[in-house]
Amino acid sequence: MWEGRAEIEVSPSVFLNAHQALQRDLTVLLLRELSARRTQTVSILDAMAGTGIRAIRYAMEVPNVQVVANDLSPEATTLTRANVSTNGVAHLVSISEMDAVDVMWSHRHRFNVIDLDPFGSCATFLPSALATIAPGGLVCATDTDLQTLLGKTTHSHMQSYSQYGALPVSAAYSKELAIRIVLGNAATVARQARRSIRPILCTALEFFVRVHFQVLDEPHHCLEVPLAILHQCLRCAYFAVHSIGQKDGGADIAATCPICSSQLQIGGPFWSGPIHDENILKQALQHAGQLGSAAKLVESILDESADLFYYSLPQLFRPFKIVVPRLSVFRNALMSLNKTVHSTHLEATAFKTNATALEVYSVVAAWLRLYGLPDAIPVPPASVTFAMSSALQTDIEMSPPVKCTLEHVWRPPTRLQTEQHHEGSRIHVYEASADAINSALAETQANDFVVLHGNKYILPEPLRLPPNTSLHGSHSGVTLIGQVVVDAPNVSLFQLHIHFQVTDLEKRKHPLLITAKNAHVDCCHISCGRHASALACIGIADGASAKLNASEVVQGPQAGIFVGGKSQVEIHGCTIHNVSGCGVDIQGGSFCSIVDSRIANCRKSGVFAHAFAELEMRNCSVDANGMAGVEGAFTTQLLNILSRGKKGGLLVHSRGNVMEASGNVFTRNALAGVDVRGTGSSGKVFENHICNGRASGIYISDGATACIQGNIIVGNKRAGIESTVEQDFESCNTLDGNGVSLLM
């Protein structure tokens, strides 16, 4: 693979996150500026080098450097050595095979830059880096366990406190708080070594926090660390920050929320100083070169203010169930009160302001008054005028949409029943007991298959199949009640109903768990009881590969199918419906292909491909799901029908990419048929039919970009295409019968 100027060979046994290229670009940008400020060679330690991609890029793209690429894994150092040779930088990169902590202490005060990119938290390595780096050096550290720092569960609170000595809170600004918790821990640890930190560039993208800070030697009396705690309401968006170590720091601490009278949650302590160095970042932009995405991110960071934390506009108005004002409208209202308002690169629909929480809610109260809710919150409404009041854009007249009358019907393929080819023996089980199944499985040789003839088999323990075997139902009524685990390769399941019923188990399970290669599930029915202690109906994890064919998945408590841990899954001719979470939930760098399948009536998105997961869909029906039809980071959509999604048809955000969406039908969605939002998100939307939506056909917003050509967009209530970026959409798309053709 290529990244920057480097060509890297990868290996399954050596970790590399190819999706963190932007993070590596940012560090290259900063190191170029650091190198420009020094006359001497910059000495860099890549403490956990993996494939060597960081070390090699630093050597090739940053002038005047010497790099040590270290890793404890022999496989990693062997691969790094080969990659260093391939790229011709052996004179700039030396290889070390040591523990990361040991290599830092064995070269104390030698390195001007220490780069820490562990799997998980960086807290374990920060004390060594802070104590051993050369004075004035730069520590670059990654924490890939952002979910812990976001504080969404009780366990995450305990984990964050044990790692960083701080409590997170679940709030709109949790990403910024995560950054500040890491910095607060670093500053506290540095103080113990009689040092201080100065943050240069800190961000949180997808699932990781990345901090860059300078480490300075300071006299003991100058080591005052700017720390604070905060109080966050458990119901609304109110929060208050209280500095630690100031005489009046706790004078205004309220017992309950002044907005909704709910309890307040405590977060911190955290770093309350600046998290960027504006002067260095401005200088760094001069060295951007080909690092366009990194430069754009730095530019958006420079547009931010130093105000602590931010407000999410949708979360501000969520309790009131009314139309939310445009971000620009709300910003202008706050600015009319002589308050500063800035965007944040961490959240597309959020803003930073020097207004207090009560002042922000006074503008909320003014908006509520427009909607006949003057007493919804106990805050006097601000004297502001909204430039575009109740209809958001009163100066634009919306025509009644002319509905598309074409019939968009998805026709499922002919039911597929794969031919079963077996070279081994048949072992028949007529007794309806788990012991009978286990006895038969114990007798199997390679390529044998066990045929079940009973109706109901109760599995008191998880049923595990040996490698290279198959388990068949002789008729469609064969039911296994319990859990089936496929943790051996080359296992097939055919014509079985696997049902997980209500149990008293505290630990939740997947009724069907696949953790091995080359699993086949054909013509099966996987279901859960309504209150079963289950996760997804099917869990596929730990680098497994599986093919699901002509099967039905129903009533998963959290998801229909969960794919994680860099697994590879093909879903063909399946039906997934009536799930409490997502129909298909794809995480952890996994790949999922869904063909000729129907996903419907899920309470969340029909399909959700998280950051670093990849999704391909062809000729599928995604209908009547509680959130978006398809919500994805990296997705290809071909010839599908996405209909009646409550949060739209196709939703891409968080720097996601619609690699191609063509030949699809997006119809009768409650929000936009195609919605690409947020800085860094992009898409190619070609030759789709987008009709009869209750909002706009296509919505491009908050810094996202999209190539939109050859689409037929008709009968949408709001606009054919709504975009915050002005482009010539009309000449290359058919826009007819919408409220307005274009809205920019």
From TrEMBL:
CDD domains: AdoMet_MTases
UniProt GO molecular function: tRNA (guanine(26)-N2)-dimethyltransferase activity; tRNA binding
UniProt key word Membrane: no
Database matches in SMART domains: PbH1
Domain Right handed beta helix: 537-681
Enzyme class: transferase
Annotated keywords: Methyltransferase, RNA-binding, S-adenosyl-L-methionine, Transferase, tRNA processing, tRNA-binding
One annotated GO biological process: tRNA N2-guanine methylation
Catalysis: reaction(s): guanosine(26) in tRNA + 2 S-adenosyl-L-methionine = N(2)-dimethylguanosine(26) in tRNA + 2 S-adenosyl-L-homocysteine + 2 H(+)
UniProt EC number: 2.1.1.216
Gene3D superfamilies: N2,N2-dimethylguanosine tRNA methyltransferase, C-terminal domain, Single-stranded right-handed beta-helix, Pectin lyase-like, Vaccinia Virus protein VP39
Protein family according to the UniProt entry: Belongs to the class I-like SAM-binding methyltransferase superfamily. Trm1 family.
Name of the protein described by the UniProt record: tRNA (guanine(26)-N(2))-dimethyltransferase
Source lineage: Eukaryota, Sar, Stramenopiles, Oomycota, Saprolegniomycetes
